Amino acid sequence: MTNPLGVIVAGGQSRRFNESRPEEIDKFLMPFGKTTLLEYIIDRAKKQVPNLILNVNGDVDRVLPYGLDIIKDDFSDAGPLGGIYTAMKEAAAKGHSHIVTFSSDSPYFPDDYVTRLTERQDIKIAIASSGEKYHPVMGLFEVSLRDDLKAYLESGERRVMWWVRRHPYRQVVWDKKNPDPFLNINTEQDLAEAEKFL
What we know:
By secondary structure, the chain is α/β, with parallel strands linked by helices. The protein has helices at about 35-45, 80-95, 115, 145-155, 160-165, 190-195; strands spanning about 5-10, 30, 35, 50-55, 70, 100-105, 125-130, 135-140, 170-175.
């Protein structure tokens, strides 16, 4: 396995976060401690992968200051799998055998996240979990699966775990604690609660 290409998956529309807001905002650009949620995740991810890109849709000017290469989804409204597919294509072009994904709304992923996902050399997919709960947007994916994923998306399917289960995969389990290492921020209340752990 070559060094995996890290990708922050931030192509969603933050629908739940914006339900009660008068105007839409990217939740990953919300203040988080002394920085933004996105910058916090970038800083932590860079400690685990030497190469990191950002998957985001819409106007890229809003994320250019973060200094990462940016990729947009090839498929519209494809959810996280759209970002994973596009990242696979980018990784293949750059000579990487795998991608490792970071969700743009999960800031507390473990310090050994990449190390544990990549400890098996013979695996095509490894999915993070805490306790018995899967976190399929947090995982390792072999780029050789990109054509299969493309066909899955072209069929109209969007469910991540349904696609994962089409292939041999490994569940990598971390203890569920407080905060959950894969705590997911969906609402402003979630964001406020997450900040308490900074």
